[in-house]
Amino acid sequence: MGVPFTKAEIRSTEGESAQEAQLIAACQAGNAKAFNLLVRRWERPLFNFVCKYVGDATVAEDLVQDTFVRVVRSIGQYAHRGAFRSWLYSIAVNLCRDHLKSRKRRTVISLYDGYTTVSGKRVSVSDDMPDERARTDAGAEAADRERLVRRLLAGLSEDQRVVILLREYQALTFPEIAEVLGVPENTAKARLHRGLRAMRLQLEREGVSPRNGSGEIS
Amino acid sequence: MSDACGNREERLVSLLYEDGDPSYLAEIRAHVATCASCRGELEQLASTRELLGAWPDAEGAPRIVLVSQPVGSVGHDEDRPAPPRQWGPRRFLPVLAGVAAVGLVLVSSALLLRFQVGADGRLRVGFGTSYAPAGGSYGLVTRADLDQSLARTAEYLEAMVRDTRQQDRQALLDAVDEALRDQDLAAGKQVANAINWAFEEADRRRRADLGVMLSSMNDLQVITRTELQQLSAMLASLAPAPER
């Protein structure tokens, strides 16, 4: 790669390791190998996030790919004002939002959309979807809980869902989430709180305990 | 809930995720210890949060392929060569025929296509978005799409070579128009590959060769929908359509 940052530049990359800063610098210089490394470093976490966000692995692959395309196109303008991953996730979030908007326009309903809304309306449920893990009791229970979580998250507003996904599954800090979404930190926290509360209320409506994902609430 | 519960949402989330400096968190803890309402709310948040762990990450990673290309083979929009005036319409008749054959087979496909004039003067077509950082250029496709595309392209090209009828340009444009109305990305990639190879095959006037085709991984380029429309316009601006 061989495009080292100066110490001052490295110090300025808050939240980034010096290694990553050098990698980004190499990408900015057009180093293909560096970009490849950057893709390998981030493709899995980004894919997991996008997959949970849009609920479709195939679409997620395309969106992750598009994210990296955008990264390459604009990495020259990336100025290290914040953590690289905040920048990366903000690109991915925008692409996911665009996708979800276009999906609404095309009125495509995926299995992911199956959920009981906050108002209690049953939309379309994928509970009958076969699952490999359902071959054992423990596997079946885990699969049930996973479906429950997916359904609950799908029932949230997009604003609430994305904060939960970024914090819980990607371990972004609240300042990073605020940067990704372009909102104040307290707004991000409030959305997360409301999201968790909405999930809890939905569980209560269904008579399900959050402790084990089934049965009566204690 | 009392006045001391102000900003409860932010404060409880801060405590739940231990986000904030120690003195701030200690202050919230002290309040929660004396406020049954906030304590109950915090417990509920924690138990709901715990449930979120039941959704594991997907197994495996996305199958993204990074394809390096020679400098200059793909460029930014501003770097793209001027419109290919040297392409006489006659030269493209066999090319268009090939493309039409492929396009007709894949009319239900959707495209985000890029057309590109290579240094050798040949037209290349690819899928996705073009980009070229300083000093190099890359293309990204998923491995699954690529494998599927290459296999199907082989079939189409075989059929194309067998079919000696000269398809007219309008057929191509119709196929492109129809493809633009559909937005199936995977099919778009297949079409991109197929068209790319149709050009090459027609230009070289030889049968498709699967071994050569596989090497087209290095020729894969990525395209935008706008650029496909440009391609369509460019083809339309060539000579009058050949007679049927």
Shape of chain B: elongated
Percent of residues in β-strands of chain A:
under 5%
Q: What general outline of chain A do the C-alpha atoms trace?
A: globular
User: By helix and strand content of chain B, what is the structural category?
Assistant: mainly alpha
Mean pLDDT of chain B: 55
Quaternary structure state of the chains depicted? heterodimer
The name of the CATH superfamily of the largest domain in chain A reads Winged helix-like DNA-binding domain superfamily/Winged helix DNA-binding domain
Low-confidence stretches of chain B: 67-93, 104-117, 127-143, 160-170, 202-232, 234-244
Report what the structure shows.
The complex is a heterodimer of chains A (218) and B (244). Chain A is an all-alpha fold and 218 residues long. Chain A folds into two domains: 108 residues, RNA polymerase sigma factor, region 2, helix turn helix motif (Rna Polymerase Sigma Factor, Chain: A, Orthogonal Bundle); 110 residues, Arc Repressor Mutant, subunit A. Chain A is built from nine helices and no strands. Chain B folds into two domains: 45 residues, no CATH class; 173 residues, no CATH class. Chain B has 244 residues and is mainly alpha-helical. The longest helix of chain B is centred in the middle third of the chain and has 20 residues. Chain B has nine helices and four strands. Chain B is 52% helix and 9% strand. A two-stranded antiparallel sheet of chain B has the order 1-4. A two-stranded antiparallel sheet of chain B has the order 2-3. The interface between A and B is large, with 57 and 42 residues.
